[in-house]
Design goal:
Blueprint lengths: L13 H4 L5 E2 L7 H13 L7 H12 L5 E3 L2 E2 L2 E3 L7 E11 L9 E9 L4 H15 L2 H8 L4 H22 L8 E2 L4 H11 L3 E5 L5 E6 H6 L10 H4 L10 E3 L4 H11 L4 E5 L2 E6 L1 H10 L1
Parallel strand pairs: 1-5, 3-6, 4-6, 7-8, 10-11
Antiparallel strand pairs: 2-3, 5-6, 8-9, 11-12
Helix pairs in contact: 2-3, 5-6, 10-11
């Protein structure tokens, strides 16, 4: 894929930059050298007068300065090339994994080859950072590595970027929240609610996975000498209740707004892989929706 000199680099959207004709899913290669040769041959077809072997020589010269893989199953072979006006990208997947002498010792399943003119150094760094942001997530890498062809790979890339955009939108709204642990007492819960001037507070277990919430109304029932020192986990469902809205951090804002409106609740708890990461209130969500 080529990038014109006027490409805006503040926001790099990979799905718009990666072309199917420069994606091989999967690669036929089974070794690192074979991977580099196969990608070099493919990208050479887009650069008149430049052959596979010349590209390989540049890649090998660059590799002597340091490994192409930083680990996490992804490798980024790259070299400087001022004979072209555009930065070139060629991508290959290795579902079975290939040894790239990565620092973590793990096999590489996604290889992204860059040929970079010096004037596009900043663009290269932004694009590299975006690839890393997308594929250091093991689930995302697995989806991409298993793509059956170039079109599917680009579609997976679009879905990953869309999900990250939704997460980014929500992350702007997530506020830290005080919380209780199951092992803490009713008395501690009362002190925490009063100190934070709230009428409800979430509860997590030892792994910080979300368990429910304790409300001021419920605590009033147990603010007695015989109950105050009892741990929350001992009282269980008598004191810990299920909140109206708990959402994963990938929830689209429009869907979250509809849910909050329907449930008429003052807060939504946000979780990531069952772990509590914060809360969102309807007022801030409304401000975000209006500003879009």
């Amino acid at each position: 894929m080529g990038f014109s000199h006027g490409t805006i680099i503040a926001r790099v959207k990979l799905s718009e930059l990666v072309r199917p004709n420069q994606v091989q899913c999967p690669l036929r290669a089974r070794t690192k050298d074979e991977v580099l040769a196969e990608l070099a041959e493919r990208v050479a077809t887009s650069i008149p007068g430049l052959g596979r072997n010349e590209i390989l020589d540049m890649l090998h010269a660059r590799e002597r300065q340091g490994p192409f893989s930083m680990g996490k199953g992804v490798a980024f072979p790259h070299a400087r090339l001022d004979r072209t006006k555009e930065m070139m990208i060629c991508i290959g997947t290795c579902p079975q994994g290939v040894d790239f002498q990565a620092p973590d010792g793990g096999p590489v399943r996604l290889v992204v080859l860059f040929l970079v003119p010096r004037r596009h150094s900043n663009l290269y760094l932004h694009t590299l950072a975006t690839f890393l942001n997308c594929f250091t997530n093991e689930k995302n890498l697995d989806r991409a590595a298993k793509a059956s062809g170039a079109d599917e790979f680009v579609r997976v890339l679009q879905e990953i970027e869309s999900q990250q955009q939704r997460q980014s939108s929500m992350e702007d709204l997530i506020q830290p929240t005080p919380y209780l642990r199951l092992t803490q007492s009713v008395a501690h819960a009362i002190e925490t609610v009063l100190a934070n001037h709230v009428d409800r507070i979430p509860v997590v277990d030892s792994a910080e996975e979300f368990c429910g919430e304790v409300t001021l109304a419920t605590l009033l029932k147990f603010a007695t000498p015989e109950h105050k020192q009892r741990p929350l986990q001992e009282l269980g469902g008598q004191v810990i209740t299920k909140p109206r809205v708990v959402v994963p951090d990938s929830t689209p804002l429009a869907e979250l707004a509809e849910l909050l409106a329907r449930e008429n609740t003052p807060v939504a708890y946000v979780v990531r892989a069952k772990r509590l990461i914060g809360q969102i209130n309807p007022v801030e969500l409304l401000r975000k929706m209006i500003a879009r």
